[in-house]
Amino acid sequence: MAKVAFLGLGVMGYPMAGHLLKKGSHDVTVYNRTAAKAQQWAKEYGGKHAATPSEAAKDCDFVMMCVGNDDDVRSVVYGDNGALAGMKKGAILVDHTTASAMVAREVHGKAKERGIGFVDAPVSGGQAGAVNGQLGIMCGGEDAVFAKAKPVLDVYAKMCALIGAPGAGQLTKMVNQICIVGLAQSLAEALAFAKRNNLDLEKVISVISKGAAQSWQMENRWKPMSELKAEGFGFAIEWMRKDMGICLGQAKASGARLPVAALVDQFYAHLEARGGKRWDSTASLIQLLLKD
Fold it and tell me: Which residues of the chain have pLDDT under 70?
């Protein structure tokens, strides 16, 4: 059993922290910017909550965090009330935020100055993966630090792997998101084509999902796509646009070309203009093809 802090109790962090306590039997203290959410978590799971990241991190062996973006990472990690200020030498900070490789390398350097290990560990699997403890976790960091953190990460992981040096986890998450938007747009176009040609979509999917076209997006998003449903579930467009901004920025810096991802990001901008910031980022794409 380890002493663990979890910082950030959004739709992903809330159940992930719960798994650490219930499945992992760890001593867990949580922090959330909205204190009521942390109090709610402590009441539901029986753990503890703290008023600041540094207080939550005090004397912990591991500090996990899952916040919104680069600025949120810095606000939670740095400063007198930040996680690093409260962490002991030899502890490990694990960042599950989908953020830039630049901020991952930056935090790694600041942590190392204090004798603290760091792993950038963005996740894939969505809210359902977090709730069910079945996340894919792609990590960047030093071998020895990752080896110590992996047993804790395995509590809510379906697959957890070290990809490379600090920042490699975030770069791998970018690859993941680039794949998703391309697959989702292709699925939207295929279903719209099938509808325009009066095919029975359920029969179509029953066949092609068993062949080379099969994907998670197809199996899990074809139905709401076909019904033009996009609200109340899934990964929101505004979150995916944040991730696309990171991907496109990294592509520019590295000389990579992302023509499809850039185009889909423009489609997301059109959907946001229709009031769709919180719509599912995959199921909603068909609306630009079937709705005037």
Answer: 292
